[in-house]
Amino acid sequence: MLMPIPVNLSFEEAAAIPEAWFTAYLNLFREGALAAGEIVLVHAAASGVGTAAIQLAKDAGASVVATVSSAEKTGPLAALGADLVVDTTAVDFAGAVEERFGKSSVGLVLDPVGGATLAGNVRVMARCGRLVLIATMGGATAELDLRAVLSKRLRVVGSTLRARALAEKVDLTSSFTRDVLPGFADGRFRPLVDSVFPLEKAAEAHRRMAANANVGKIVLTVGA
After folding, report:
1. Are 27 and 134 in contact (CB under 8 A)?
2. What topology does CATH give the domain 15-158?
3. Which of 79, 31, 72 is closest to 58 using CA atoms?
4. Where are the domains of the chain?
5. Which of 51, 141, 149, 217 has the fewest CB atoms within 10 Å, measured from its CB?
C-alpha cells in the first residue's frame, strides 16, 4: 500500500493524504457513484476527509455544498472550490441548500455526522440519491422517514475503510495511485495541512482537534 510522494509535496503534506483522501475517494466514487453535474453535500467539510472530498468532487464536475460548524471555516472551504458553504451554527443546512439549488436537489451526501443530520439529508436528496454514512459524530440513532426513502428511491450506504480486508485496501491504493495521485503533481489537488506538531506535543495536537479548531489535517512529525 505504499505510494511515491509527488515531487512537489513535503513529507508533512504527503502524510495528510492517507487515509483522508482514500476515504473521500472511496466513498464519493465507489460507494457513492458520483457523476458530473450532480450536487454533493459534504458534512463536517473542514476535516481532512471533507477538504479532500471538495477537491475531488469539483474535479469530477460536481457542485459542492459544504457544512461547517463555525463562520471562520467558511472562507477556506470556499477557496477550495465549494459552491456553497453553510455554517450550521447559524442556519439550517437543508433550508440553505433548498434556497440555493431548489428542493430535492442533492444527488450524493457524504456524512460523518450521522443522527443529527439524517432528517435534513433525506429532505434535500434527489430521486435516486445516495447517502453514504462514514461516522456517527452527531449521534448513532435517529428517526428515518421511510416513505421519503421509498418515494425518492434513496440508497443508504454504510462505509468504513479500516475494517476492510487487506486485498480491498491494496486494490484501493492501486486505483488511487492511478486516478488521484497525479493530481498532486500537476497541481489540481493539494492536501490541506492545518498544523504540524512534533510527536512529543501530540496531546496539544489532540486538544486542537477536540476543540474543532482545525481546517484540514493535523500532522505529527517523528524524529524531526
Report:
1. yes
2. Rossmann fold (3.40.50)
3. 79
4. 15-158
5. 141
